[in-house]
Amino acid sequence: MWMRDVPLAGLTRWKIGGPAPAFARARTELELRDLLAELGEGPVLVMGSGANLLIADEGSGCPVLVLDGEFKTFDLAEQSIRCGAAALISSVVQAARRAGRGGLWILEAVPGTMGGALRMNAGTPEEGIWERVLWAEIMRRDGRLDRVQREDVEPRYRGIDLDPSAIFLRTEISAPPGDAGRVEEEHARRREAKLKAQVYDQPTCGSTWKNPEAPSPSAWQLVDRVGMRGARRGGAQVSPKHANFIVNLGGARAADVVELMIETRRRVLSETGIALEPEIQFWGFSEDVLRQLGVAA
Ligand SMILES: Cc1cc2nc3c(=O)[nH]c(=O)nc-3n(C[C@H](O)[C@H](O)[C@H](O)COP(=O)(O)OP(=O)(O)OC[C@H]3O[C@@H](n4cnc5c(N)ncnc54)[C@H](O)[C@@H]3O)c2cc1C
To answer: Does the annotation count 191 as an active-site position?
Structure first.
């Protein structure tokens, strides 16, 4: 059932953003198809756990769907893990780690759902989840089901080339049994490094900017170089701990985050000639704001 004017901030990791004009949870494939049909034509946004999203203060501007129920489950097969798109990355990673399955360590300490991970090609700078995807099932905007194989999708750094309206429902990820000691060690090492360097005790959306291609300095180094580490606008601050993270100190508005980002990007461009590109996704912003943020049209 679609509900009207539902607040979204509490569903995002940043705790920022206005309402959705219409909002629904789909617990089964049938429910999802009915919900899409009920809306008729027009765009729909799918939300995972909001770990990579900035929603405008005025709201998402479009109806928002969240997958729930049967989409939250996952199970281990002999050489792989089959997951619903609403399964939490942390639960899947923990199950793989405990069972001594290799490869899922690239998602260690990455918040979110498997659907968000598929859309974002989440992982490390060197390796994204699509390196390990065997197939993914999607629902098209018109309710048609499709199965995409690894080779049907062009993965790139924090994204994929696939119909942007496709909704991921399920996936199967290669996760062969490995040396249990090595698997445990790899997970522990990566987790420790991430918790030490990044910000987990304040509301953030992870890396704000993509790292530009080598040999450019990394995004945090560029932000640091132009003096934006620790900079504050309203309730938002460039984290003093990690310059590529923006934290909500309390009561931050999307406009505060946007102001920090536009200022950072302007300074980096004028001082180094490098045009930063955001890693986070934006909902409900005007073309003009998106252009200033460096979001590719
Ligand atoms: C502290 C911290 C550390 C992080 N570290 C990393 C890291 O190391 N590596 C990394 O890659 N990311 C990292 N991230 C970013 C984030 O965790 C990932 O992008 C994650 O995959 C987002 O998942 P989500 O479910 O929250 O997606 P959301 O933020 O809800 O959505 C992100 C995008 O995915 C789309 N989407 C979500 N579900 C579906 C679906 N079922 N079908 C189709 N589209 C969908 C949304 O429409 C949106 O475009 C980090 C974030 C934080 C806060």
So the answer is: no
**270 CA → ligand 1 middle, Å:** 30
| Two structure tokens written together for 69 | 């129920």
Catalytic residue (one of 82, 97, 132, 158)? 158
Does 158 participate in catalysis according to the annotation?
A: yes
Q: 3-69 has which CATH code?
A: 3.30.43.10
Cα–Cα distance for residue pair 297/282, rounded to 1 Å: 12
Q: In the structure encoding, which two tokens stand for residue 94, read together?
A: 């923990």
> For atom 17 of ligand 1, which residue has the closest CA?
111
Residues with CB under 6 A from ligand 1: 13, 45-53, 67, 85, 110-113, 115-117, 119-120, 122-123, 167-168, 198, 200, 204-206, 281
CATH of range 219-293; options 1.10.490.10, 3.40.50.620, 3.90.78.10, 2.120.10.30 = 3.90.78.10
Going through the chain in order, the beta strands assigned E by DSSP cover 3-7, 19-26, 45-47, 53-55, 64-67, 74-76, 80-84, 133-139, 145-149, 154-156, 159-161, 167-174, 232-233, 236-238, 246-248, 281-283
In which element (H, E) is residue 205 found? none
| Per-residue pLDDT of the chain in tens (297 residues, 90 and over written 9) | 999 999 999 999 999 999 999 999 999 999 999 999 999 989 999 999 999 999 999 999 999 999 999 999 999 999 999 999 999 999 999 999 999 999 999 999 999 999 999 999 999 988 999 999 999 999 999 999 999 999 999 999 999 999 999 999 999 999 999 999 999 999 999 999 999 999 999 999 999 999 999 889 999 999 999 999 999 999 999 999 999 999 999 999 999 999 999 999 999 999 999 999 999 999 999 999 999 999 976
